[in-house]
Amino acid sequence: MPKQTTYHQLRNLTHKKYKSIGKIHCPYFRKQVYFTSQGFWHLIYTGRNKSRDKRNQQLRFKLLKQAIKVIKTTTTLQEYQKIPWKNIYFYGFIAIVDGWKIKVIVKKRGKGKLTFWSVIPNWTTNKKRDRLLHKGNMETD
Prior knowledge:
Strand order of the largest sheet: 1-2-8-7-6-5
Oligomer: single chain
């Protein structure tokens, strides 16, 4: 029971903090990145009715602070993915922040606004050097 309480407390606290962010200026885009309800939803789910396991969610909740730092300071794009038939673009920024190697994904649908999509812990950039914890699909990660 205590683990569920801890999970729900962390989720509620993170949700409250997430809603207060609103938008952040990103030097790479020279535009605002918006923190919408879809981004928070994606921290919890990978797709319709397919939730991430609770440990994965908790880690992503805890890394939100680092993701914000990456968006506020990044000037270099590391990954880019386009899904033409959906008119969706994903931008990946990899950084080491506060001892965590993370990837932050920003999503753009068509000519819409840039939105925070995800933060991924310990994303690999070199399979021979790094231990792979996540596979590379920016839409579902």
